[in-house]
């Protein structure tokens, strides 16, 4: 097995993390081929920290250098599709960071181009899909452990960010720089997991608040309601101003319920009989026992599964899986083409907020881009007036 020479584009928090893992030999089948960053200060840092590793201030030059077999895009979201396409054009494998892009139209262009290069590896960095807890949750749902889904609820507010976080740079938390707030920066993994495990809703109605508790132009509070094809409903709530944040994911089925707490514990309550059968066959005397809490053990069984997540292990797993796919065709944890689903869900929530109305999925992609451009224009006008 050869070592894949990885080109890291962007040496910020994520790029620095991956460079450290590779330099320390923690990723089987992969080494650092080169590093690229437009910040001149990063060149001196790399010379000191990663001696002998080629450094570029232009990613195209890196792609054409012969120093890399693959790249990972640790750059602002708008650039992910462009960089992915440019790499694939030059027969270089592409691992795109989440989200795959800001809007579905640009992500589809990446997917379409990648489809013309089936011999290359194209993946997206959905490291939460390697989390044993969420793998187990998907297995439970796929194996019909709680029956047909009736409702999903995910309250994920563990993203507390103080004002100083947003004031670090001008591009952060802007429509022009990031393409949104909590939906595109903090919560993409949850949006991916939600649709990966429970399926994509058909309709979205969202209450989206922009600069609600922070001095920013993008969303820092979201409450979205979903309708699914089978009539099930869902709620997704997220924000960046809850310093006592909650992470609770609940899935109700007609044969039971699963509750995930803090992404560490799964509680499975399996009904002895499906709820429709209980409803049609139980006497009111038996029903009263339920109301009085006298027959819980006769109604359902309970199983609790505890999980521990080793810091960094999920990221290393994605990098190793990417290298293994290049080397021997090992199936990808998340093919690059799957990145569009979470972007589509985020776009639908945004569009509902922009328009103040329910949005069907699929939606008008041109309309989304037009509304996004309006937000960018308003933002620029605010900057001028200030």
UniProtKB/TrEMBL annotation:
Domain GFO/IDH/MocA-like oxidoreductase, chain residue ranges per copy: 134-258
Pfam family, one: GFO_IDH_MocA
Domain of life: Bacteria
Span of domain Gfo/Idh/MocA-like oxidoreductase N-terminal: 5-118
Protein name: Gfo/Idh/MocA family oxidoreductase
């Amino acid at each position: 097995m050869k070592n894949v020479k990885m080109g890291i584009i962007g040496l910020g928090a994520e790029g620095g993390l991956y460079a450290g893992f590779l330099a320390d030999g923690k990723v089987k089948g992969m080494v650092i081929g080169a590093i690229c960053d437009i910040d001149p200060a990063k060149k001196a840092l790399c010379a000191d920290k990663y001696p002998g590793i080629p450094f570029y201030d232009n990613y195209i030059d890196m792609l054409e250098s012969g120093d890399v077999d693959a790249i990972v895009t640790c750059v602002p979201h708008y650039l992910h599709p462009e960089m992915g396409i440019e790499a694939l054009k030059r027969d270089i494998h592409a691992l795109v960071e989440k989200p795959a892009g800001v809007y579905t139209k640009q992500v589809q262009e990446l997917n379409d181009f990648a489809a013309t290069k089936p011999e290359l590896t194209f993946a997206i960095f959905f490291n939460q899909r390697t989390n044993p807890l969420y793998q187990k949750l998907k297995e439970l749902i796929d194996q019909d452990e709680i029956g047909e889904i009736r409702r999903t609820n995910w309250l994920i507010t563990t993203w507390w960010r103080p004002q100083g976080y947003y004031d670090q740079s001008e591009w952060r938390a802007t429509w022009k720089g990031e393409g949104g707030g909590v939906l595109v920066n903090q919560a993409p993994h949850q949006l991916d997991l939600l649709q990966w495990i429970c399926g994509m809703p058909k309709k979205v109605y969202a209450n989206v608040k922009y600069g609600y508790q922070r001095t920013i132009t993008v969303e820092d509070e979201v409450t979205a309601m979903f309708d699914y094809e089978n009539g099930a409903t869902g709620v997704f709530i997220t924000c960046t101003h809850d310093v006592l944040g909650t992470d609770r994911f609940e899935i109700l089925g007609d044969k039971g319920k699963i509750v995930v707490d803090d992404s560490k514990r799964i509680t499975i309550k399996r009904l002895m009989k499906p709820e429709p059968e209980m409803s049609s066959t139980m006497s009111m005397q038996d029903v009263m026992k339920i109301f009085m809490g006298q027959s819980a053990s006769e109604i359902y069984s309970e199983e609790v599964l505890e999980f521990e997540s080793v810091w960094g292990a999920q990221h290393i797993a994605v990098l190793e899986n990417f290298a293994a796919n290049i080397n021997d065709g090992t199936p990808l944890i998340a093919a690059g083409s799957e990145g569009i689903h979470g972007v589509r869900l985020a776009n639908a929530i945004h569009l509902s907020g922009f328009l103040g109305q329910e949005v069907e999925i699929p939606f008008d992609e041109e309309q989304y881009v037009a509304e996004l451009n309006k937000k960018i224009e308003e933002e620029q006008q605010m900057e001028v007036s200030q």
